[in-house]
């Protein structure tokens, strides 16, 4: 089921640094597409029927759409902040709904159990009260004042710390995480999840980071984040149902799931239902 609301959104379709004139074949919401550089070195995306699709290059990635986006790609101000290291983490293919991938990224309750001794550890399993809202002016889901004890909050961290998080959902298949920056407590590390919906139950996940970390080797930064997401993949690929339920009665939420509840409500409000299950089956 493809709905116009999601067709008209921007989606990541590849890393700009990896493009060449030969191109890369992939898919977007069930349609074959090709991502390449044209004769001038600019990114070009072509649909399966040969039509040229809209293109933006931002945050190290090429973005495109099968429709006509009604607004520009969402801003991440930290992407223009001097002194940050920008990390293209690569891609992980996951057999799950693209909406499931985003919701999992928003879930902190699983840290001690899935990312044991990295992003969480027993007995520190309680999710403290935090604030969730749908910001009407920006039309985004935000979770703030999220705090969690983490044995290794980042590659730059030495020893366990209580980490503060802010989550932001600016688009149906993208999320931006702001978290405590160990080397610079006055700043936030930025970790994003850009999800490319290949089909309703299959997606490519493109994490990207904007960090203050002048010490860690780039390969170590990439490996750390890939390790985290590969741990998530096994959970995501075994979730039932595969599509994300939007009916509140289909799954029983807990107090820790406030962000997920707001995200699902926001999706339903905008008819962002590609990759969603609307009624119980």
TrEMBL record:
Q: Name one Pfam family in it.
A: VanA_C
One GO MF term attached to the UniProt entry: dioxygenase activity
Residues covered by the Vanillate O-demethylase oxygenase-like C-terminal catalytic domain: 94-269
- Report if keyword Oxidoreductase is assigned: yes
Official protein name in the record = Aromatic ring-hydroxylating dioxygenase subunit alpha
Cite the entry's keywords alphabetically: Dioxygenase, Oxidoreductase, Plasmid
Q: Which organism encodes this protein?
A: Rhizobium ruizarguesonis
């Amino acid at each position: 089921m493809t709905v116009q609301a999601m067709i008209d959104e921007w989606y990541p379709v590849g890393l700009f640094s990896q493009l060449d004139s030969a191109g890369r074949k992939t898919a977007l919401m069930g349609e074959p597409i090709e991502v390449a550089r044209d004769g001038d070195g600019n990114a070009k995306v072509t649909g399966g029927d040969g039509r040229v699709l809209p293109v933006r290059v931002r945050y190290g990635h090429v973005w495109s759409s099968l429709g006509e986006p009604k607004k520009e790609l969402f801003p991440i101000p930290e992407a223009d902040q001097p002194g940050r290291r920008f990390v293209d983490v690569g891609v992980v293919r996951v057999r799950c709904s693209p909406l499931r991938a985003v919701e999992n990224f928003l879930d902190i309750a699983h840290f001690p159990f899935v990312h044991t001794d990295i992003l969480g550890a027993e007995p520190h399993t309680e999710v403290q009260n935090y604030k969730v809202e749908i910001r009407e002016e920006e039309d985004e889901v935000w979770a703030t004042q999220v705090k969690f004890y983490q044995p290794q909050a980042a590659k730059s961290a030495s020893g366990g710390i209580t980490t503060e998080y802010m989550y932001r959902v600016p688009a149906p298949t993208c999320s931006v995480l702001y978290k405590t920056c160990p080397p610079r407590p006055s700043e936030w590390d930025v970790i994003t999840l850009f999800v490319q919906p290949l089909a309703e139950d299959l997606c490519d996940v493109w994490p990207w980071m904007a960090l203050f970390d002048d010490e860690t080797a780039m390969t170590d930064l990439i490996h750390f984040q890939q390790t985290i997401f590969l741990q998530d993949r096994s959970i995501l690929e075994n979730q039932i149902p595969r599509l994300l339920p939007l009916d509140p009665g289909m799954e029983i939420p807990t107090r820790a799931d406030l962000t997920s509840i707001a995200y699902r409500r926001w999706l339903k409000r905008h008819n962002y239902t590609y990759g969603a299950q609307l009624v119980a089956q």
